[in-house]
Every structure is written in structure tokens, then in C-alpha cells.
Amino acid sequence: MPEAFVYDAVRTPFGRFGGALAGVRPDDLAAAVVRAVMERSPRLDPAAVDEVTLGLANGAGEDNRNVGRMAVLLAGLPTSVPGSTVNRLCGSSLDAAMGAARMVETGDASVVIAGGVESMTRAPWVLPKPGRAFPAGDTTAVSTTLGWRLVNDRMPREWTVSLGEANEMLAEKFDVPRDRQDRFAARSHQLADAAWSSGFYDDQVVGVEGVALARDEGIRPDSRPESLAKLRPAFRDGGTITAGNASPLSDGASAALIASEGASSTIGRDPIARIAGRGAFALDPQDFGYAPVEAANLALARAGITWADVGAVELNEAFAVQSLVCVDHWKVDPAVVNTRGGAIAIGHPLGASGTRILGTLASVLRRDKQRWGVAAICIGVGQGLAMVLENVAA
Fold first, then answer.
1. Which of 29, 108, 136, 142 has CA atoms 20 to 30 A from the CA of 192?
2. CATH superfamily of 4-122+248-389
């Protein structure tokens, strides 16, 4: 079977909720990264792209009607290029990349653009339709920005707790105190700021037309555990999770160019990483923060390596507590995890985060001259995904 490779990865700067990207439609954000992928490989004939597949968590607003296909059209690719949209909540774009790799490996495609997008700012309120005509009572508009909505009454209550409460339960289960979470969060901000200052992200991040945002909007270089310790718990009295040690609501898009080894001449550039293993894992919905542990173990086994071989990890920081639980259960040096900052600082626009960590991982492997790396992400409703990359230059 052919093998699948990452040739390039780009993303927009990630904006804060209601921030610099608030005026940009999600389909335009998606088109921006698809267009950027093509511009960065000028020898690649747009008609040679076999598929564009994008991840998206919401899809209730301007990102409806298959945002993957909308991105193809808005980016100016030929109408002959198919487009699809994947929804696995926070793991959507990593799932899109996994699907792209499978297309290449099975011979169904040679060149695929995979990515994702989310505008949590512009996610609309929705109104359920009434069960009968002319209801006399009031109707409540439901936000689609994050988490459960319009919950099925047949779902057990313990499955449908809020994401924050689920992670408070995780903190209790694995005894992760507040001070560890705050230290982890401060580290995320400091490393992200240092990475931007050193130019690490310059080649990965593309601007959005009409928006004066040069870098991720949520990074706070002055974050310290002492200042984070002053924030009030967000989900329960006496809890450990705050706005400071959880990822913020964000806007942004990301994309990766995934293709066969033989497509190098078509693309006009060499691959940067081989997709060596993939893993998906599921468990009780409220325990979703732990799911990346076994997803990554599966991906490593399928790649034929162990944690002893891994030199870099990009773990999406949905919450500091779930990140710490994952690292605690992996046999890996915590110092190699998220060395250029994570989602607590950079942001977590749900559908875009998977290919964001994938692209960051490929760059970390090259910069740090490491051979093997893992990208992993937790997913609401009890799932996790992971992918193993091999640095082709190592």
C-alpha cells in the first residue's frame, strides 16, 4: 500500500472570542487556509487536488451546507475538486487528516487538503421547532458555541455534565490539584510567547485578509502561577478549573497538505513527515479527558514504536487537568510535551485544533531534529484521537 505524508501545514492566527476574527465568516476562514496551501506550492495544479476535507464541530450557522465544499469554491479551486466536512467535535480536523491519509494509502487519492475551521464567536443561537402549531408559551434560544445543547432526555445525566464539570471529576479521580493546573497553564503561555518571539510560528501562520492580527490573540506572556491562583473556579464552588487553566473560546482555521510519496513531483516539494500510525479510543462521555491516553498508545503500537522512541508530543490543551492526566499516564518526558505552547495560550477553535497540533508537531520534529512525534486530542462525548508522525529528515 502507498504511504501518506504531510507536505505542508498552515493556519490562521487564532483569535479570542469576540476578538480580531469576530468579523470573519467561518467559510472565509476555511477558504483562507485552503488558498494558502495552494499558494505555498505554486507548482501544484489546483485541478490535481483529489479532495478537500475539513473538520467542523458546529455547523449551525454560516459554516452550514458542507463548509469543506464552500472552502473549495471560495478559495478559487476548480469546481471539479470535491469537498467534504467531518464532525468529530474537537477532533474534527485531526479526523479529517486521518481520513485523508486513508484515501492516499488505499489509492483513492494522491493529493488531499485536510484541515478544519471554527468561529466560536459567530456560532448562532438556535430555536427548536415547536411540537404543534401556535404554541402559547415562550421559547428559549440555545447557544451553539460549546458543549451540550438540546439534550435527549434518554441520555443518562452523568453523561451530559458540562465539559468543565467532567474535568472537575477528572481532577478528583486522579488527584490533580489546582496549583499543578495553574503551573501548567502558565508554562503554556510562556512557551507560546517564546516560540512566537523566536520566529518558530512565522512559517506556519498566514494572515487573514482585512484583519490586523499577526499572532495568536490569547497569549498572555505575563502569566504566572501566582496570578492564575487568584482566579475564581468557573464550574463549581471550591473547584480547581478556572478561565486561566482551561482553553479559551476561539476562532481560526488550519490546513495540511497530505499526499503520497509519488506526488512530490506534482506538488513541487518534498514531504516533511510520514504518517506512521493512527488511533481512536472511546469511553464514558464524562471521562473524555482521559481518552487520548489510549488513543496515543494505539497509534504508537500501529507505528511499531514505543514511548521510548518519542521525541515530541503535541497534546491539545482543552483543560490543564486533562493534559496533566494524559502526560501522567504516558511513559514520556513531560519536557517534550507542547514545547511551543498549547491551546490554553494559543486557543482552541474546536474544528481547527487537530491540524493545528499536527502542523506544529511536524515543525517541532524538524526544528528539534527528532524522529518520532505524537499529536493527540481529547473529544467531548468520550473520545480521543492520536496520530504518529515520522520526521523524514531525521
1. 29
2. Thiolase/Chalcone synthase (3.40.47.10)
State how far the Cα of 126 lies from the Cα of 119, in Å rounded to an integer.
16
- Would you say 86 and 96 are in contact if contact means Cβ atoms under 8 Å apart? yes
pLDDT tens-digit series, residues 139-197: 999 999 999 999 999 999 999 999 999 999 999 999 999 999 999 999 999 999 999 99
Q: DSSP E strands: which ranges in the chain? A: 4-11, 15-16, 51-55, 83-86, 111-119, 125-126, 142-143, 250-260, 273-282, 310-315, 372-379, 383-391
Active-site choice (189, 326, 329, 378): 378
Tens of pLDDT, residues 334-379: 999 999 999 999 999 999 999 999 999 999 999 999 999 999 999 9
90 is catalytic: yes
The Cβ-side half-sphere exposure at 85, using a 13 Å CA radius, reads 22
Contact by Cβ (8 Å): 130, 139: yes
Asked if residue 362 lies in contact with residue 132, where contact means CB atoms within 8 angstroms, the answer is no
pTM of the model: 0.97
Q: Determine whether 378 is an active site residue.
A: yes
Catalytic residue among 90, 189, 326, 329: 90
Decide if 127 contacts 142 (C-beta within 8 A): yes
Rounded average pLDDT over 220-233: 96
Task: Write out the three cell numbers for 231.
Answer: 482566579
Residue 348 bears catalytic tag:
yes
